[in-house]
From TrEMBL:
Protein name as it appears in the record: (Atlantic silverside) hypothetical protein
Chain intervals for the UniProt region annotation (Disordered): 1-25
Record keywords: 2Fe-2S, Iron, Iron-sulfur, Metal-binding
GO cellular component term, pick one: mitochondrion
Organism placement in taxonomy: Eukaryota, Metazoa, Chordata, Craniata, Vertebrata
Domain Iron-binding zinc finger CDGSH type: 23-60
Length: 71
């Protein structure tokens, strides 16, 4: 089995040009020095920073899978 290539998130890999042509890269300059968590799930309400929205998305997907499993 060949490995699945991982996207180069959070850096632009150009995939949006065909998969989501209305999505553009977000350019930003950090406001201060220090660590920061950048969003890679595209669900954040505070781009480009992670706000934990991926947990909501994960829960939604898990509940959907459980519903399909027991349907």
């Amino acid at each position: 089995m060949s490995p699945v290539p991982l996207p180069r998130q959070p850096f632009c890999d150009g995939a949006h040009r065909t998969k989501a042509p209305d999505m553009a890269p977000l350019r930003f300059s950090p406001e201060k020095d220090g660590g920061a968590l950048l969003c890679a799930c595209k669900e954040t309400r505070t781009p480009p920073y992670c706000d934990g929205s991926h947990l909501r998305v994960l829960l939604r997907d898990l509940l959907g899978a459980a519903r399909r499993l027991f349907k």
